[in-house]
Specification:
Strand content: 15-25%
Structural class: alpha/beta
Number of helices: 10
Bound molecules: guanosine-5'-triphosphate, magnesium ion
Amino acid sequence: MKGGIEPPSALGGYEPNEHKKRPSHGRPLFWLRREGSNLRPSGYEPDELPLLYFAMWVANIRRPQDTVQTNFNELILPAYILTLLKSGFVNIFGRPNAGKSTLLNALMGEKLAIVSPKVQTTRHRIKGILTTDQYQVIISDTPGIIDPKYKLHEKMMHAVKGALEDADLALLLVDIRESWEEVDNLFSALRLRVPAVVVINKTDVAGPEKKAAAEAFFKGKKYCRKIVFISALKGQTEELMQTIMEFIPEGEPFFAEDEISDLPTKFFVSEMIREKIYALFEEEIPYHTTVLVTEFKEKSTLIKIGADIIVQRDTQKSIIIGEKGKMIRQIGIDARADIEAFLGRKVFLELFVKVRPKWRENDTFLREYGY
Ligand SMILES: Nc1nc2c(ncn2[C@@H]2O[C@H](COP(=O)(O)OP(=O)(O)OP(=O)(O)O)[C@@H](O)[C@H]2O)c(=O)[nH]1
Ligand SMILES: [Mg+2]
């Protein structure tokens, strides 16, 4: 999150994971990169190396992790050296409701993606960036894979396709209670060209026999390089993190170390409002709805946010508003609490409901709403 906004750790009660702890002694001076059998500092040409080594000698940098004040780019920065940083894209795929967003949040130790017991909650690819002094892993949550029925679905599957293309490692997430045959068909149809780990989730609701049966089922499948059991809900992901590191290549980071996502604050705000709609309304209402943040003004004492809740029909508008405005007030109260925790500021939230017939089928509307 750029722009000085605190990460949303207050949101879901997530404890920062052990692997999440970042070095406190500043930016890396350089990374050591493997070139054939040699190690070479990244970002320097060979003819600059003698000068670099001389500067290191003067500054008394002898070993990786030595800390020093360097006069670097005319800035005084604390710096240190990293050895063989690993970095890469880990993309999560699965059917709706498998727990992909819960897993992203658990790995990040922060709530980035909204979660609900209903299917098709996630509509975008959401990247979480996890940086330590050992690695930078970019973890992508994706929409659950479905047969598209309308244009919004097509856009959602487009997001999945993009993630299939740039993964270094695919995490194929399975809800241990769902039909393994069906997920097997789906995973086979993906025709993955990158290594994949089958991640069996929700082990907190399954006994040892069920786990053994799942292992026997997925073992030996063509796409399956390894099987890991997790409970994303309970944050039991240590073994998965170790497995991820086995598959991530050595390389330089893609993002600055203080970035936790590539998406703007407005996106997260609109998602928090959408999450409340999934929680408060039954049946089809959430699927006909999207949220667009139209105003975001930082004032001295608070942030003023205006958002449109978009629905397809007048009847849906009156359901969202509720009797004497009861429901929209509730959305506002619930969403504001999360947004305030996320931004670490007081928020004035104003919600409007707008009817846009067939917005889910309309390219112009879809684009305007960020799909
Ligand atoms: N018992 C249990 N429930 C879980 C676990 N992980 C996720 N869930 C629940 O499963 C439901 C769906 O979780 P999500 O993370 O929204 O699933 P998703 O795969 O992102 O779903 P879509 O975005 O719709 O594709 C929620 O009610 C979660 O609380 C788990 O490890 N154990
Ligand atoms: Mg999701």
